[in-house]
Design goal:
With 61 residues, the protein is an all-alpha fold. The chain has one domain. 36% of the residues lie in helices and 0% in strands. It has three helices and no strands. The model has no long low-confidence stretch (mean pLDDT 77).
């Protein structure tokens, strides 16, 4: 899970289907475990294309 990627993780379902925090906390833990260890928002010299699927100006940064 990264703002520079096009993937996502559903947190709405655990919020709507359970009155306890357990399923939501488990979903958050799962989402965090899928995050990349690093980011690379640079544009490679001579290539002209960002190495990330979504560049920061698309995200709003």
């Amino acid at each position: 899970m990264c703002l520079g990627k096009n993937d996502s993780f559903d947190l709405r379902s655990p919020l709507r289907t359970s009155e306890s925090d357990g399923p939501l906390l488990a979903a958050i833990d799962e989402a965090i475990s899928r995050k990349p260890k690093g980011h690379d928002f640079t544009i490679e010299p001579g290539n002209g294309h960002p190495t990330m699927a979504r560049h920061m100006n698309v995200t709003g940064g």
